[in-house]
Amino acid sequence: MRVRKNIATSDEGFLFNPTTGDSFSTNTIGAEIILLMKKDIPTSEVVDTICAKYDVDKELFERDLEEFTLQLKGHSILE
Amino acid sequence: MNTEMKHKIVIAVTALNAIDSPGPGVAVIRAIRECNDFDVRIIGLSYESLEPGLYMHELVDKTYQIPYPTAGTDALLGRLKYIHEKENLELIIPNFDAELFNFIKLREALKKMGIATFMPDLDQFEARDKMKLLDFGKKHGFDVPEDKIIHEFRELIKIEENFEFPLVVKGKFYDAIIANTMEQAEKAYYKIMSKWGLPIIIQEFIKGTEINIAALGDGEGNTISVIPMRKLYITDKGKAWAGITLDDESYIELARKFIKVTKWRGGCELEVMLSNDGKPYIMEVNPRFPAWIYLTAAAGQNQPASLVKMALGQKVKSFTDYEVGKIFVRYAWDLITDIKEFQKIAGNGEL
After folding, report:
1. Does B8-118+334-348 match B146-204 in CATH topology?
2. pLDDT truncated to tens, each residue of chain B (351 aa)?
3. Cβ distance of B325 and A20 shorter than 8 Å
């Protein structure tokens, strides 16, 4: 689960793929998750960080994260 | 006080039709004027009295009408001699596909008159012709879609033996229609034939992302500049109304290879379809700058200005960097002029 090296991201959740020219907007949680992913940390650490910060059920978050990850892969944001 | 007058290079430019399906002339002039290395006087060469560029006096100093390409090279040369007497032209930059053949034919005659050009030669020009693209691709190892040139309707009927639907029906100069059924293909055949005549090109449909690449070659196989762009907003005529510069070494390599094998001299545009399995198919090669060429200057590789320098005999180094994510958004603007202006160009062929 690694963000492609050339993907430009902003703290506000704007993503730009310079290879395809596609750009995307995520909400603030999405932006936070992507910034964590950019640190190249294991998925479990992303889950722990978000669950520690927000009042969210761990299992539910893991499911949402998986779906989000699939979307990012589909748009070539993740390797 | 510095009283030294900088010499103005006199450059004639065609394709001032900055309309919804625009010619590149206005964008070429804008890029040239933006270069601080020289001063220019721009002479517009027009075919129609309502080409918007004629009336943009901040860009075009003077315009002369020239004969349509169908009038042939003698008529064109006669008119250019007249214009040259008045303006002392140093360089002509033709920007229309349809006029290039005549200008290439006149290259030596123009050179003798002291007018430089920087265009592909006839072999280069013809090798990338739509009708020969498949052979060109096979010869040089480029991925190009399969096609078949058809000269009569009964050949179309048999097309299902070699092609699957959807397929693309293309005119020899312009227009492309995607046909999903034989009935649609027949309709497209007649529509395009009535507009552009025969033959018609039947081409394999490649599904993917369309990428356009503006490139400039020095005529010796070296690539001076490559800028890949993806259309973000497309008009109903398939023209880019907005686009963004991309960062992908494979597009740049593709353009470099094209320029190397053809020893391309001048500007060109590669229309590429990146298939869903990641293969870059060359769909078409336009033998001149595209209408979005100003984006190359905005991104840091001023291709028209580099062409001017090379045409005038200067050595130009290849660019290496450009800004990725630079966007152009075209807009429509009602330019106001006067009947007197229109009368000058329509009546006297000069403005």
Report:
1. no
2. 455 567 899 999 999 999 988 999 999 999 999 999 999 999 999 999 999 999 999 999 999 999 999 999 999 999 999 999 999 999 999 999 989 999 999 999 999 999 999 999 999 999 888 889 999 999 999 999 999 999 988 888 888 888 999 999 999 877 889 999 999 999 999 999 998 888 999 999 999 888 999 999 999 999 999 999 999 999 888 889 999 999 989 999 999 999 999 999 999 999 999 888 888 999 999 999 999 999 999 999 999 999 999 999 999 999 999 999 999 999 999 999 999 999 999 999 999
3. no
Give the chain A residue whose CA is nearest to the CA of B324. A18
B241–chain A nearest CA distance, Å? 15
Distance CA A30, CA B121 (A): 54
Residues of A in contact with B229 (CB under 8 A): 21
Query: Which pTM value belongs to this model?
Result: 0.90
ipTM of the complex: 0.78
Superfamily of domain B146-204: ATP-grasp fold, A domain (3.30.1490.20)
Count CB pairs under 8 A between chains A and B: 20
B8-13 vs A22-25, strand pairing mode: unpaired
Q: Order of strands across the sheet with A14-17?
A: A8-9, A14-17, A22-25
Binding-face residues of B in 217-246 toward A, CB within 8 A: 229-230, 232, 243-244, 246
Question: Under CATH, which architecture does the B8-118+334-348 domain have?
Answer: 3-Layer(aba) Sandwich (3.40)
Going by the DSSP 8-state scheme, the letter that residue B348 receives in this structure is: I
Within the 4-43 window of chain A, which residues sit less than 8 Å (CB to CB) from chain B? 6, 8, 16, 18-21
**Distant-in-sequence, close-in-space partners of B305: CB < 8 Å, separation ≥ 6:** B31, B32, B34, B35, B37, B297
Per-domain boundaries in chain B = 8-118+334-348, 146-204
Q: Distance from A10 to chain B by nearest Cα, in Å?
A: 14
